[in-house]
Specification:
The structure is a single chain. By secondary structure, the protein is mainly alpha-helical. It has one domain. It contains five helices and no strands. Helix 1 crosses helix 2 and helix 1 packs across helix 5.
């Protein structure tokens, strides 16, 4: 029983460290404070709804790709919550990505609390 609890605690700690790293890296990329970045992510639910929810796939990617994915999701989620989001028009020649080593994530729907 204690071994299971210890593993669960280690997993939770790893996820929190990863989330913290995402906040720090995104803040550095956008040239804002970590406090501001954390507040923006918290406001739209990005930490729980994307970073932690998609942890299993995200943490296997490079820091650069994770930062791109997190900032892309943040931009979309902020636009959706502000009512300024417009989905790109579908074009007949657009195809889903294939092959490559980079895993593509679908961004989960945001919940308005």
């Amino acid at each position: 029983m204690r071994v299971r609890q210890s593993k669960a605690r280690e997993n939770r700690e790893s996820r929190m460290i990863f989330a913290s790293s995402c906040v720090e890296t995104a803040a550095r990329r956008r040239n804002v404070s970590t406090t501001e970045m954390y507040q923006r992510m918290k406001r739209v639910g990005l930490i729980d709804g994307f970073i932690l929810k998609c942890y299993d796939g995200l943490h296997t990617q490079s820091r650069e790709h994770v930062t791109e994915d997190v900032l892309g999701a943040l931009d979309i989620w902020e636009a959706k919550t502000s009512g300024k989001f417009q989905a790109p028009a579908q074009q007949s020649n657009m195809r889903p990505p294939t092959g490559g080593s980079r895993q593509v994530f679908e961004i989960p729907e945001i919940r308005n609390n």
